[in-house]
From TrEMBL:
<protein>
    <recommendedName>
        <fullName>Hexosyltransferase</fullName>
        <ecNumber>2.4.1.-</ecNumber>
    </recommendedName>
</protein>
<dbReference type="Pfam" id="PF01501">
    <property type="entry name" value="Glyco_transf_8"/>
</dbReference>
<dbReference type="InterPro" id="IPR002495">
    <property type="entry name" value="Glyco_trans_8"/>
</dbReference>
<dbReference type="GO" id="GO:0016757">
    <property type="term" value="F:glycosyltransferase activity"/>
</dbReference>
<keyword id="KW-0472">Membrane</keyword>
<keyword id="KW-0732">Signal</keyword>
<dbReference type="InterPro" id="IPR029044">
    <property type="entry name" value="Nucleotide-diphossugar_trans"/>
</dbReference>
<dbReference type="InterPro" id="IPR050748">
    <property type="entry name" value="Glycosyltrans_8_dom-fam"/>
</dbReference>
<keyword id="KW-1133">Transmembrane helix</keyword>
<comment type="pathway">
    <text>Glycan metabolism; pectin biosynthesis.</text>
</comment>
<keyword id="KW-0812">Transmembrane</keyword>
<comment type="similarity">
    <text>Belongs to the glycosyltransferase 8 family.</text>
</comment>
<feature type="signal peptide">
    <location>
        <begin position="1"/>
        <end position="24"/>
    </location>
</feature>
<keyword id="KW-0808">Transferase</keyword>
<keyword id="KW-0328">Glycosyltransferase</keyword>
<dbReference type="GO" id="GO:0005794">
    <property type="term" value="C:Golgi apparatus"/>
</dbReference>
<keyword id="KW-0325">Glycoprotein</keyword>
Amino acid sequence: MRFILYAAALLLLHFFLTVSFCLAIRTTVGGDGLGFRFPEAPYYRNGVECPVSSGDRNLVQVAMTLDFEYLRGSIAAIHSVVRHASCPENIFFHFIAAEFDPASPRVLSKLVRSTFPSLNFRIYIFREDTVINLISSSIRQALENPLNYARNYLGDMLDLQVDRVIYLDSDLVLVDDILKLWNTTLTNSRVIGAPEYCHANFTKYFTAGFWSDPVISRVFRSRKPCYFNTGVMVMDLVRWREGNYRKRIENWMEIQRKKKIYELGSLPPYLLVFAGNVEGIDHRWNQHGLGGDNIRGSCRSLHPGPVSLLHWSGKGKPWVRLDGGNPCPLDHIWESYDLYKGNLIKHQSFPSAFANFFEYPSYLF
């Protein structure tokens, strides 16, 4: 009898400790008990030359997704933006969070606020059922995440007063003033601006079935398409809404569901709709592919020329490789913006070993 009472007491104690532990986790900031803890970032203030923002005027509007899997990357990306901005207090972030993400939008909001107390931002909830029935299989499961498609719906989610936005992926860092990118002019009624890569083999982004179909392949007949990466885009939301580009992208996704015409998730529909009609931006604003290919995630070097933005698109993510003890050389640049509590936060100059990789803006050091 004594043994039964003792066992029952242990079980009861375990229950109360477990409940108390769960409740305590849920009331702390840092990923709803998912192990994320970020110290408060430095407070970056406007320079004397910065205009006083009034409403949406003089604000640089930036849109990003926030989710548990890429949260550490998102925090580093935000940190890099405000750290190098000439007018950091004039940046407004629009964060898109998934409805059923392990880290709830409420907790994500608390985490961002505790890490960046002076940041201007708003969090929007993206309903995954908006797009889930349009997503087809891809060469890598991560590319099938519904949140990858949230950029298609910015024109619907953001207030109508937001007529222009810079969309940024979560696996990148800026080493230059985002205001320069914001000042991109979209000419000839173009809807988006992005660095183009016309030397790339464009045919490889679509299947043989696409190119052999005389009806759907003629979409490129009247334009000269070039590859561009959708992780960095300047978007005119007025033209986007007027042209109903969300529906145009969805139409191609519906075709993909019936007849497999591409392999790479959310990128090809943008190529189908916009390639050949993109405002070309200097390549320094998206040095992409640093995550390696979509299968092996091998190390990559930078493209020739100066750099304003480094982008770890591809399978390999810098925080994963750093934690695993097998980082690529360029991952240490990302590390200097990493605010994760478990890592040494580096604010000094980048190691001299990287100095010959590319030209740094003078204020990077």
